[in-house]
Design brief:
The complex is a heterodimer.
Chain A lengths: L5 H21 L1 E3 L5 E2 L6 E2 L5 E3 L8 E5 L7 E8 L3 E2 L13 E2 L8 H12 L4 E12 L2 E11 L5 E11 L2 E10 L3 H14 L5
Antiparallel strand pairs in A: 1-4, 2-3, 4-5, 5-6, 6-12, 7-8, 9-10, 10-11, 11-12
Chain B lengths: L1 H21 L20 H20 L7 H15 L1 H4 L3 E5 L6 E3 L4 E5 H6 L3 H16 L2 H25 L3 H39 L6 H20 L18 H11 L11 H20 L4 H11 L6 H14 L2 H17 L4 H13 L3 H14 L6 H6 L9
Parallel strand pairs in B: 1-3
Antiparallel strand pairs in B: 2-3
Helix pairs in contact in B: 1-7, 3-6, 6-8, 6-9, 7-8, 9-10, 9-12, 11-13, 12-13, 13-14, 13-15, 14-15, 15-16
The chains are: A alpha+beta, B mainly alpha.
């Protein structure tokens, strides 16, 4: 409806030109069958297929993996989140604080922690937990949960995640993909990836 | 050459400035109002704009954020019709969107978006009507079309000035161009704000002519300022200023709007019914979901302010439960103690409130009262055996204990 100003779009184009090659070179291939440490922590996984590790990091203890691009299939590792820390880096500690993982957080509250984080961080208006079940993760008693949400791009997505609290730190791995085609196509690969996760 | 180009640039800017000052609205043929009958857009700009908006509306109609509930949409439509009149409201399609922020918007083709955050914040038909009337005012006065034309003319001037200015590259020309750019952009943003003021005047006019209490329009903005203040206070930010206009501000500041809306409301209409009872009844089935969406935004101050405002008519089990969730999710040890108390209040009012029993159980467990916490969780599972987290909660209760 409103035409953009030419100098604004020119500035944006210039910025994207400057940024594009830098980020493109820094993604890494995670090859099938090769154990690899995640987010500079002792957590290792052995992928059952090739994945791309994106250079984008949502926070210090996170890592993004994808096959076709993060909007189509997005695996996020949250490795060793310490008490008092949010799941992802806050855009503004003062203005947009995120919910924190605390020493008192119960396993049953972890799905809620991810939900409130995404609602704030992704401005997701609609978010539903569809199932919360006890399950094993990293050899410990953990929680497996599934959810559905719509964020700013208004594309309905489904998600599946596993989490455990080990030695007071939160470990979680999540998979999010559009409800149409991509979730069903990628979820088995994700489950194998989550099964292969190990802590020494 | 340089001086000639400078002259041209100067003359051009004078011409444009003169035109903008002398003729803000060129004479136009009288068009039928856009809500009349099956109005069709007139002229190439309006036709193009409507076509774009039709495309957007197609996407919006399929959006997963849209709440497709006949009763809720019908009620919002009724409030719109009560405000602007049955002869006008027929041209509008209303979409209620699940967005927890305070907002509503109107497209030039008659698409109205109403956010659930707005429905949570207003407390009566009059307050809702004030916002819907403002949005309808944009539609009736064809503000988007005016905006489109203004921005096109303004950016055309800048583009030509840039081309002509680059024929004579000197410091003076560059400085003149920057000045021109600032004044054109400043005028365009001010034009947008004036349109908002215009829509406010139209909106309060509808409300004055309706059966609803027009003083509610000002109260919407006063409450919103209260909420912003509460949010800033809880975050430890400076008290926000509601009287400043930023260069690029799209709307007039809230304090100004509250002020002139209060003045424009008909004084003899202050005793009219504002439809608060009807509003509460119509929104009751949705309140739980809207509250949940708000509380999970992690904006403690604003959520607490809204809960206090909703509880002015008395605390219900639902409000106590929502407050418990708010405090439990912030999760400081003192919050957990408060949360347990709020959940207990909810359970006292409505012992069959399953979620309140869950929250009570979790809060008590976290504050070291395992026995009472497990009893509450057991009640939760009895009340809601098929809850999505039933198995996990079940593992938190030791097996073989006697039933309470």
């Amino acid at each position: 409806m409103i035409r953009p100003l030419f100098h604004l779009s020119a500035a944006l184009a210039l910025t994207s030109l400057l940024l594009a090659p830098v980020s493109a070179q820094a993604h890494k291939l995670r090859e099938r069958g090769a154990p690899v440490a995640v987010a500079d922590t002792p957590l290792t996984v052995t992928p059952s297929r090739d994945w791309n590790r994106l250079d984008v990091r949502l926070g210090k203890n996170t890592e993004h993996w994808t096959v076709d691009g993060e909007q189509l299939n997005d695996v996020i590792f949250f490795a060793a989140i310490e008490p008092g820390k949010p799941l992802v880096r806050e855009r503004s500690k003062k203005r947009e604080p995120l919910p924190k993982f605390t020493a008192a957080t119960l396993l049953v509250e972890v799905p809620e922690l991810l939900e409130t984080t995404w609602r704030t961080y992704k401005h997701s208006g609609s978010f539903q937990m569809t199932g919360i079940e006890p399950g094993r993760f990293l050899g410990a008693d953990g929680v497996h949960f599934t959810y559905e949400f719509v964020d700013q791009d208004e594309l309905p997505r489904r998600g599946e995640a596993r989490a455990a609290i080990i030695a007071g730190k939160l470990y979680m791995i999540s998979f999010e993909a559009p409800r149409l085609h991509y979730f069903a196509a990628g979820v088995e690969d994700f489950r194998k990836l989550a099964d292969s996760a190990r802590l020494p | 050459m340089i001086s000639r180009a400078l002259c041209v640039l100067g003359a051009l800017s004078l011409l444009v400035a003169g035109e903008a000052q002398a003729q803000p609205a060129p004479p136009q043929p009288v068009l039928p109002p856009p809500y009349a009958g099956a109005y069709q857009p007139q002229g190439v700009d309006e036709i193009g704009l409507w076509r774009e908006m039709d495309e957007d509306e197609r996407v919006l109609a399929q959006s997963d954020l849209a709440i497709r509930d006949e009763a809720l949409t019908g009620y919002v439509r009724k409030v719109l019709c009560d405000t602007v009149g049955a002869d006008r409201c027929g041209a509008v399609r209303i979409y209620v969107l699940r967005q927890p922020e305070f907002n509503a918007s109107m497209a030039p083709n008659g698409t109205m978006q109403v956010f659930t955050g707005l429905l949570l914040r207003v407390k009566s038909e009059a307050e809702l009507g004030a916002v819907l009337g403002h949005e309808f005012g944009h539609f009736e006065a064809r503000h988007s079309l005016g905006q489109l034309k203004a921005w096109r003319s303004g950016t055309d001037v800048l583009a030509w000035a840039f081309v002509l200015g680059s024929l004579a590259p000197s410091y003076n020309v560059a400085r003149s161009y920057r000045n021109l750019e600032l004044s054109v952009l400043g005028n365009l943003y001010r034009f947008g704000r004036d349109q908002e003021r215009d829509a406010d005047r139209l909106g309060i006019g509808y409300l004055n002519g309706s059966a609803l209490r027009p003083q509610a329009a000002s109260e919407v903005w006063q409450k919103l300022m209260g909420e912003y203040e509460a949010s800033a206070r809880a975050k430890g930010l400076k008290k926000p200023r509601f009287d400043r206009i930023a260069f690029t501000a799209s709307h007039p500041p809230q304090a100004e709007r509250a002020g002139y809306l209060a003045e424009l409301a008909r004084p003899d209409a202050a005793t009219r019914d504002d439809g608060a009872e009807r509003y509460r009844a119509a929104l009751a089935p949705w309140l739980g979901m809207f509250l949940d969406d708000q509380i999970k935004l992690n904006d403690f101050g604003a959520s607490e302010y809204l809960l206090q405002a909703l509880a002015q008519g008395g605390w219900t089990a639902q409000l106590h439960h929502a407050r418990g969730e708010l405090y439990r999710m912030r999760g400081a040890p003192r919050d957990l103690v408060n949360a347990a108390q709020f959940y207990a209040d909810a359970v006292a009012l409505d012992p069959a409130h399953a979620e309140a029993n869950r929250g009570l159980g979790l809060s008590l467990l976290k504050t070291g009262q395992a026995g009472a916490g497990q009893a509450a969780l057991r009640r939760y599972l009895e009340l809601k055996p098929d809850a999505s987290d039933a198995r996990l909660i079940g593992m938190m209760i030791p097996a073989g204990e006697p039933q309470p």
